[in-house]
Design brief:
Layout (H helix, E strand, L loop, with lengths): L1 H34 L1 H13 L3 H28 L2 H18 L6 H18 L2 H11 L4 H26 L5 H22 L5 H6 L8 H4 L3 H30 L4 H29 L2 H20 L3 H14 L3 H13 L4 H30 L3 H19 L9
């Protein structure tokens, strides 16, 4: 009797966990593709409206700062309420903000719509509440489960950006933003149906909610190392994602190929994030993070000395493979170092720092280009900080058990 009822009792839980994984993947698929669209449309917007790249760079910087605060708030709420509420509300706000980007005509329009409205929604419907939701549903193999769901961002970058790059050959950049707004709103009913009101049942199946809060964590060396590492990671990430298409076009790559280069970064990112999650489950999150930064050091050095089409492609694809490696590992670092009681808040705080410095990187790249007419100084700065992040990562410890 017990053997007959056991599988039946476990089946709904397994099914629910799989549905949660799929729903989280779809949210990050759409959000991941949408947030990179500004890099795809940067040059057309600047050329069409007579702006400078710093105007768009400032919008990205605002997006990073506002979405960072939204991610922290989303993590805090995910610890205490239903992730469905957080993700659903985020999709609505993000859809409105990105859709209205189709009517911008002055820099402040982009600053408000992309930098504030879309940022609030995209930050709420982000990997922070999704990561908390998945960690509750998958107490074992958390690294690979979060890697799989986070790969939605890479797949979204690959599929959405490739599709939009092809579409932009025959339609305006304004139409791209209209369709992105529609897709966000269309996803809302699926999220409501797929995600239960609360995932506390999954949390009960996981390890007990023990651990330290932000104040206690801030007294540890591990916490400040993680903040510094993720700050450099964001600094690199959003400099490259914002400027790589324009940089490739500056070096003679045609617009369609340059747009698809950004999309293919999503493909290599998919490979990188899954491998990183699997390695993390076996040996901890430190080693995949260190390898990620070491690879960036190599390609930043490469593109500083050779900016041929082949080198630009190698730079983009290798960097793309590292782009999302650290994202699912944030949850693993926090679980191992500080426990699970304040998982959303601590993960959100670290990601907030990542996003803020990402905005600085995106804006700094634009400002340096507008001043010098090239990205050489920006690449040198990125290289220096990435070497530092590699060394800091090797200083991390892997706790024997959670705090």
């Amino acid at each position: 009797m017990a053997s007959a009822t056991g599988p039946a009792r476990r089946h709904p839980v397994a099914t629910s966990a799989a549905v949660i994984l799929a729903a989280g993947f779809l949210v990050l698929f759409i959000g991941g593709g949408a947030r990179f669209t500004v890099g795809l449309t940067l040059k057309p917007i600047v050329d069409d409206l007579g702006w400078v790249r710093g105007d768009v760079g400032l919008a990205v910087a605002l997006y990073q700062a506002v979405s960072a605060a939204a991610m922290f708030a989303a993590g805090y709420l995910a610890d205490r309420t239903s992730p469905r509420l957080v993700l659903g509300g985020g999709l609505v706000v993000a859809g409105i903000g990105i859709g209205l980007m189709s009517i911008i005509s002055a820099p402040w329009h982009a600053h408000v719509l992309y930098g504030v409205v879309f940022a609030l929604g995209n930050g709420a419907a982000s990997m922070i509440p999704v990561g908390v939701m998945v960690a509750r549903a998958f107490p074992v193999r958390t690294g690979i489960a979060n890697a799989v769901v986070t790969s939605g961002m890479s797949v979204g970058q690959l599929v959405v950006i490739a599709a939009l790059a092809a579409v932009m050959l025959s339609v305006s950049w304004q139409s791209v933003y209209v369709w992105l707004g529609i897709v966000h709103l269309a996803l809302l009913p699926l999220v409501i149906l797929a995600i239960p009101k609360s995932t506390r049942m999954q949390a009960k199946a996981a390890q007990p909610a023990i651990g330290v809060g932000v104040r206690e964590a801030a007294r540890t060396r591990q916490f400040w190392l993680l903040l510094a590492i993720y700050a450099v990671c964001g600094f690199d990430d959003f400099f490259v994602s914002t400027h790589v298409v324009a940089f490739a076009q500056d070096r003679g790559v045609d617009a369609f190929l340059a747009g698809n280069l950004l999309a293919l970064m999503g493909l290599t990112g998919l490979v990188g994030v899954v491998i990183g999650g699997a390695v993390s489950d076996r040996s901890g999150p430190m080693w995949p993070t260190a390898v990620c930064f070491a690879a960036r050091v190599v390609v930043f050095a490469l593109v500083m000395v050779d900016q041929s089409t082949v080198s630009v492609a190698v730079f983009a694809l290798v960097f793309g493979a590292t782009f999302l490696v650290t994202a699912p590992l944030t949850v693993v670092f926090v679980q191992e170092s500080f426990g699970t009681r304040h998982l959303g808040a601590l993960t959100g705080l670290i990601t907030m720092v990542h996003q803020v410095f990402g905005g600085i990187g995106a804006y700094l790249g634009a400002a340096l280009f507008d001043k010098a007419g090239n990205y050489q100084a920006a690449f040198a700065i990125m290289l220096g900080f990435t070497v530092l992040a590699t060394l800091l990562t090797l200083m991390l410890r892997r706790p024997r058990q959670a705090a």
